[in-house]
């Protein structure tokens, strides 16, 4: 094009032109301007072009004059353009001064000649194709003045005239971004016309073919046009194959991509996908893509093919009878509204796994296209920030009368203790432990202590739970010879292992040793146990490394833990304990093309159905689970505390699809997992796919690995969870998610988390988990061991705050220092210590929160001088596990009421949310007696961000974010809420101040942090979030987080409190202004661009991958926008796309 234009030289007016022609005079002026190109005054150019345009519009004679043979009018225009294009912005000047208008008028004029001059049309279209893109309104202008129709007619009449077709097609392309034009052209038969131009494979006229394909692709973005093209899908596939076969030197990648572009748009509609499948499109694109794989330059073809195949992949049904949790807990009172009520009211026999009809699919296709464009701006708004200033101010009225709160007095004995001699001794030696659960006026309505699992009303009874093994018969012997080895008798090979081993092991190693591997086993053991007697199974001695762990005590604790499935087994990792490995575990670097490879393997299921085994090897929904299998399959199990595997299906020899159970009394929340695998082959490349994940992205895409625990490693002296797995990725899959499970949205899919793994040991039993498990029984064990650490100087009291719905008790700890003496002064100091209130693990899937809490508790109970000072400085009230039932039953997010407990703080129900109700009551009691805590902090885990950080509450910072600047200057707020996070950022390596936020969001108004801030009046009310993945700053940059780092964080939190104490003492107040310099913090943060101080902006601020990763084959859905799946303290930006928002708000 440009070559064509620039070949024209500026011409003088031909001598034959009569000098009285006005238009030619104007052209003369225009030409003169061209010669003085550098000095053109745009205003003069505008005046001239406006005059020319006016003449053309009003005088037929003038039009003829310009386009007639021998006139140089056209040439002057072209010359103007030519000069303009050299002058850079000048095309823009010409365009904006009405140049396109002149040209379009000329097209109309030229079309009135009969026959129209081919040469003129060619020239005009060439110029239009060049000028058009500079004029945003070009498409609309061309349609309105009729030039678009002229072009279409010209195309229709010149199908063989390649020279003319090319510029005409280019003009169409310029007009196509307008949806109205696309539809109108479609009506005018242009889609069919394109298919006439796009012939079979030929290396002639490749540039025309390319332009035709691009034009067609643009036309097909319209749904109605796509419908017109459905019949041509086989042709497009055929041409694509031809090009694939013949373009061996890959010189025509753009043509091949153009064909795929057309297919991609046609398959946006349901009919198109059907046509694609019927035409064997899956196989064709699969085969061609596989052949393209070795050539990196063909990646765009593979990626587009993969996108089309994923879109067309028939949606499968999740292999389940219902998505409701396998286990049910009958609630005595069902919450009036919301998801749980919905679940209970679900009609009998209703299929909740897939939607009945998929009529919405086409609407979905339309949405896809919108999403493609609008996706990036999706979250630019900040509509989650609380803007109602009244909701940001302290709640004035205390809703509960003091009389009602008075019963909580007994949890605060330390506030009234007078340590009289008798009692003092008593306290000294026997810090009492109250096991009476609190009884409140509403307690009559509390469920019985040990409710049995019962099916939901009006529903087929689900299979009876596995009968509980009698835990009392567990008899694990420890040898007493002083070497500390815990040993078990190992029976002779071939003997009935289940009978001889303690029952607790029957579901673990023992059950598996009875299989085909028996004879080899004997040799293995003989090798391993060189010096020991035959038949002794060593249990790792972790006593020295793990002072808080004791296997026997753990089993004791398990016996008093109530689970809905009535778990009778103990997982080995929980039994043996975990010693953090000393080696560094780096954040995994993502290998190029992983996702693509995995998706292609998924597509192969469809292409080669005969290779698929589809063999169920574990299924909690059937009576006989676990499925017994003597063959080549892995064995799965997760019927132990916190376990939640529902089903395992062997797909290929070494590949398994795994389905997670929903939270109890819910039909979703799948993220946490914990299960056992055995029967593996050493060195075989296993692939595991968890196929019913729900979040739209995951840290598994950013270097996080799964955790694995090998029993063989443990008994060889390395009892530990290790980060493991390769080829890890997380992507949208082809299992459809019913609207019931997707918050009412239709056409959604689940996500797959996949990882590969080779096992190192024969006859091993391995466990996989989302994060380091920490069970309720583990907590109870740790608490008992901690109590043993107590020195006479330590005041430790363990109360039972309440019973949970599942019949487990919720411990409340009080830790402080004993008074130095019973003198009045000392007692006074003791009673008047400020309170620090900590809680953790309201969300069962966030096990990291428990490890941080463990670090805190161990530090607080420790013997260091710092710990002692800390105890002297504060009274600690700690609820270490706010949701024991959720933890026990392997839930990810909810309690047995099927609700997120961290959304109940505004109005907790004593019957449905007892732990929240009573914890809040404790705080209300404290507020009522003017002893509200100095610090409240609820420990959480964050699934999508790195580092450890805090969310706090600030009226002023919230108002800043909402840009209501008028009111913000009148607000006065103590900046003390920033001190603690600032201290932490200076001393805790994993902690990142830049990730902290103090903005109050609407979606968080019922969380502990916001309610304690607003209703209890605690200025320093926080959520502390620990990453599940790792750190991207500080000492641990590039490393995945482990229990050592998490525990360290918990300890550092304590040290920070001590520093806070010093800073907040009246004498020191003036010296820590630097810690409170909010504005410089904010500026620093914003300048760095690493993040901004608001939670909803911080989500998933991950750089994009080098591999173009597409999670959502069809639509950019954001499940977090739907209230059912919203992650309360996670925030609401979804994925990798979020970089823009930062820019838009900073
Ligand atoms: Zn949480």
Automatic annotation (TrEMBL):
Q: Where is the composition biased (Acidic residues)?
A: 352-374, 1098-1121
Q: Which reaction does it catalyse?
A: C-terminal L-alpha-aminoacyl-L-glutamyl-L-glutamyl-[tubulin] + H2O = C-terminal L-alpha-aminoacyl-L-glutamyl-[tubulin] + L-glutamate; (L-glutamyl)(n+1)-gamma-L-glutamyl-L-glutamyl-[protein] + H2O = (L-glutamyl)(n)-gamma-L-glutamyl-L-glutamyl-[protein] + L-glutamate
Predominant localisation class = cytoplasm
Peptidase M14 domain boundaries: 772-1061
Return any one Pfam family short name: Peptidase_M14
EC number in record: 3.4.17.24
Q: Which InterPro entries match?
A: ARM-like, CBPC1/4, Cytosolic_carboxypeptidase, Pepdidase_M14_N, Peptidase_M14
Q: Which GO terms describe its molecular function?
A: metallocarboxypeptidase activity; zinc ion binding
Q: State the active site.
A: 1025
Biological process according to GO: proteolysis
Q: Where is the composition biased (Basic and acidic residues)?
A: 375-387, 479-488, 1127-1146
Q: Name one GO cellular component term.
A: nucleus
Where does this polypeptide localize? Answer: Cytoplasm, Cytosol; Nucleus
Note down the stretches annotated as region Disordered.
352-387, 479-501, 1083-1146
Required co-factor(s) are: Zn(2+)
Which SUPFAM superfamilies would you find in this protein's record? Zn-dependent exopeptidases
Q: Which UniProt keywords apply?
A: Carboxypeptidase, Cytoplasm, Hydrolase, Metal-binding, Metalloprotease, Nucleus, Protease, Zinc
Query: Which family, according to UniProt?
Result: Belongs to the peptidase M14 family.
Q: What is this protein called?
A: Cytosolic carboxypeptidase 1
The organism's taxonomic lineage, starting at the top: Eukaryota, Metazoa, Chordata, Craniata, Vertebrata
